[in-house]
Structures are given as structure tokens and as C-alpha cells.
Write a structure and sequence with these properties.
Elements (H helix, E strand, L loop, with lengths): L1 H5 L10 H12 L4 H11 L4 H4 L2 H4 L23 H10 L5 H12 L6 H18 L17 E4 L2 E4 H12 L4 H8 L4 H7 L4 H18 L5 E2 L1 H30 L2
Parallel strand pairs: 1-3
Antiparallel strand pairs: 1-2
Helix pairs in contact: 2-8, 2-10, 2-13, 3-13, 7-8, 8-13
Length: 255
């Protein structure tokens, strides 16, 4: 039991295990054959779903502490898309947006050592999932909702973790069952979702974070009604995350 607990990913790190693996599983279904071949050269038999959670599992190791700020970006409330774009152009902090751009650049380097290539690909898969959890573009003052203490049914939780994992776990599905249950898209949807690139995807999630902040306050008891009212947002973000991750990977690796 101690061994198992040691390897549980810590809270407030993006979607939980199932959520990240759903994103990876969905992305896999939209990979081009040449992309899949190149990824296999890097990850071997490790699937996108399994690679997606590496970044959280290594958090228990001090050597990887420098990755902690990679999982989110703090954005002030009230930005328009143009204002957010202006901020991103001048922002010099370590965050998910800047690191996804860095990882994309590094993974194009044909001379990159295989060990780094494997780590960078795992991080890219994970961080694309992270930016689709809307509270990963939340307020610094409340740690993306982590300081908004709520009760989930009969146990203590926080708003961030409710959106990371509680609602997803409440569905009682494996990641493959979950992915299969929501992975229905049209060509026009996928084209629309992948327009604009990373900053547009981030803005989509950022706007949803306002909806989430308005949905609960500290001390609230959240239950099946909260799940019913908001699970569509969760599912939409997981699905978009998978489609967009596939688009990035096809951009990187397809021949």
C-alpha cells in the first residue's frame, strides 16, 4: 500500500490520471500513420494515454521540482482575446504556454538525444491536457481554485480538484470507456477546434474558468447536481484536448 500511495500524482496538477489518459486516448485516434510510427520510435510500446501521466508521477522526485510551474499559467481576470495575446507576448514567466512552445521547438530538433526526446514528448502530451483544464489558467491568488474549499458529497475537497478529477471519477469509467463514450466528432468540428493555435485554445479554457469561478464558493457542498450541470464542460474540454493534441503531434511528426 505504501508503494502505491507514493506513486499517486499530487493534487492540483491538471486533470487526474483518468482525465489525462482520456486526452491521450482520444488523440491517438486522430494520429496519421506516419505520426504514429515516429512516436513509436520515441515511446516504444508506451501509449499516448500512459505517457500522459508521467509528468505527475515524477513529482515525488526532487530532481523534477523544476517542472512544477510548467503545468499552469496565471492570468488576470477580464482579458479579451487581444489583451491575453498582448500579455503572452511580453510574459517571461515559466508556465504551460511558454513551455509547450519550447517543447514543440525542441522536438523538431533532429539532433535531440533520445532520452530528452522521450521526456519532452511526455511533457508535451501532458501539458496540452493541462491547458484544457480551465482552472489551469485561473487566479494566482487562489491557486486556480485550489484555495476554494468545498465539500464533494461527504468529503473535503477544493474547486480545482473537483474539476481535475472528482467529476471525472464520479462517472466510474475506465479511461478507454470514457474516451469511447465522448469521442464523436465531425471533420468540421475538428477543423474549427484546431484553428488559431495554442493561444486561441488557451483563451477558450480561460473563458470557461470564469464560468467555473461563478459556479461555487468556499463552503459549498457539491454533489450530483453540480456534476449534472457541469460535466458537459469537462467532456468538451477533454475531447478538444485530444483533438488538438493530435493536431500538434501530426504537425510535428507526420511526413
Amino acid at each position: 500500500m505504501a508503494f502505491f500511495l507514493f506513486y499517486l500524482p499530487l493534487k492540483s496538477m491538471g486533470w487526474g490520471v483518468i482525465g489525462h489518459r482520456v486526452v491521450g486516448e482520444i488523440a491517438d485516434s486522430y494520429l496519421k500513420p506516419s505520426t504514429r510510427l515516429e512516436i513509436k520510435k520515441i515511446l516504444g510500446n508506451e501509449t499516448l494515454a500512459m505517457a500522459s501521466t508521467w509528468a505527475d508521477f515524477v513529482r515525488s522526485e526532487a530532481a523534477y521540482n523544476y517542472l512544477n510551474n510548467w503545468h499552469y499559467i496565471n492570468l488576470n481576470r477580464g482579458y479579451s482575446h487581444a489583451q491575453m495575446e498582448d500579455f503572452l507576448k511580453i510574459d517571461t514567466s515559466t508556465n504551460a504556454y511558454s513551455k509547450i512552445n519550447l517543447l514543440m521547438k525542441e522536438l523538431k530538433n533532429k539532433e535531440l538525444a533520445m532520452g530528452k526526446k522521450r521526456m519532452y514528448l511526455r511533457m508535451l502530451i501532458h501539458l496540452v491536457g493541462d491547458i484544457h483544464q480551465p482552472l489551469h489558467s485561473g487566479n494566482k491568488s487562489d491557486r486556480g481554485g485550489g484555495e476554494i474549499k468545498v465539500t464533494w458529497f461527504d468529503r473535503q475537497s477544493n474547486l480545482h480538484w473537483v474539476w481535475d478529477a472528482e467529476m471525472i471519477d464520479f462517472q466510474q469509467l475506465s479511461y478507454t470507456e470514457y474516451a469511447n463514450s465522448i469521442n464523436e466528432t465531425t471533420d468540421s468540428q475538428r477543423d474549427d477546434w484546431t484553428k488559431g493555435g495554442l493561444s486561441s485554445w488557451l483563451f477558450d479554457a480561460y473563458r470557461l474558468s470564469d464560468v467555473i469561478y461563478a459556479s461555487a464558493k468556499s463552503g459549498d457542498k457539491l454533489d450530483s447536481k453540480y456534476n449534472y450541470d457541469h460535466i458537459t464542460i469537462v467532456n468538451g474540454q477533454l475531447l478538444k484536448g485530444g483533438v488538438r493534441l493530435a493536431a500538434l503531434l501530426n504537425q510535428l511528426f507526420a511526413s
